[in-house]
Design goal:
It is a multi-pass membrane protein. This protein is mainly α. Helix content is 80%, strand content 0%.
Length: 283
């Protein structure tokens, strides 16, 4: 390469002509400044549109609410039995909904994967149905099933089941499409039928991934089951909304703290299961 000190004016002109984007520093600065101007203008417009100034006028109410949440009174009247029954109901909803969704996804994932479903028409139909299940928010499914089967935890279980089935089926199908084909071909070479090929060729490779993803979804569904209770799908969410309406903010804080403890415990147990049976090491 020619040293910069020996470059002639012609060489510089030639380099500018060949690589104009490198030398157009002024143009880049203008574009960069315009981008930042648009971002700042959008931010200021958003703050004005959403009336962010109301925080100042609502500061007294906010402080009163926070103090009411962390100053606990009349603890002996809190009906701990109903609170912990609702928490147990929430955990059961999350577990059953995730379990049913995982079982259904185990079969549907094979229909949506390119490696296990060679018929494109069937594969695309299954994927589009999964898009509907996955695209509708879990809270909307909760509202649908509350109208369909009535108030109670059954609506929450069905909402979690439908939502988790759609997402897990997508994840399972992607895992099936990224397996090592040599093991599958080896099982097929023994004369095994399609069922045995799936059992001994596919499942041993993807089952650890399936279990790991289902454990993560169980943790996520526990939080979702709390929200589903707000629309009448049972669980601790109904306790929270009832206490909110009665202005028992200290009890709301107590319930939320218990839910956080449950989520932490589920996360810890899931991590131990993955480390023990799947081989995932702790960081």
């Amino acid at each position: 390469m020619t040293p910069a000190s020996t470059l002639s004016q012609n060489d510089i002109v030639w380099a500018r002509a060949q690589h104009p984007q490198v030398f157009n520093v002024k143009g880049k600065r203008i574009v960069f400044a315009l981008i930042w101007a648009v971002i700042i203008a959008y931010l200021i417009g958003s703050l004005w549109y959403f009336d962010i100034g109301r925080f100042a006028s609502a500061s007294d109410r906010a402080w009163r609410l926070i103090s009411a949440m962390f100053v606990w009174r009349d603890i002996e009247t809190w009906q701990f039995g109903s609170i912990y029954t609702a928490i147990a109901q929430t955990l059961a909803m999350a577990f059953l909904g995730t379990l049913l969704g995982s079982i259904a996804a185990l079969f549907i994932g094979f229909l949506a994967a390119r490696t296990t479903m060679p018929i494109p028409f069937v594969r695309q139909i299954v994927r589009r149905i999964l898009d509907v299940f996955r695209g509708v928010d879990q809270l909307v499914w909760g509202l649908v099933f509350v109208r369909a089967v009535g108030l109670g935890p059954l609506a929450g279980v069905l909402a979690i089941f439908i939502s988790d089935m759609g997402t897990l089926s997508k994840l399972y199908s992607e895992a099936l499409e990224n397996i090592d084909r040599k093991q599958v071909e080896g099982v097929r070479a023994t004369g095994a039928g399609p069922i045995k090929v799936m059992r001994y060729g596919y499942l041993p490779q993807v089952l650890p991934v399936f279990i790991s993803q289902s454990l993560y979804f169980f943790e996520s569904s526990t939080r979702s089951a709390t929200i589903l209770g707000l629309v009448g799908a049972g669980g601790v969410g109904m306790i929270i909304i009832e206490r909110f309406r009665a202005n028992y903010f200290d009890q709301v804080t107590f319930v939320v703290l218990n839910v956080l403890v449950c989520v932490y415990a589920i996360d810890w147990i899931s991590k131990k299961i993955r480390e023990r049976y799947i081989g995932e090491q702790a960081h």
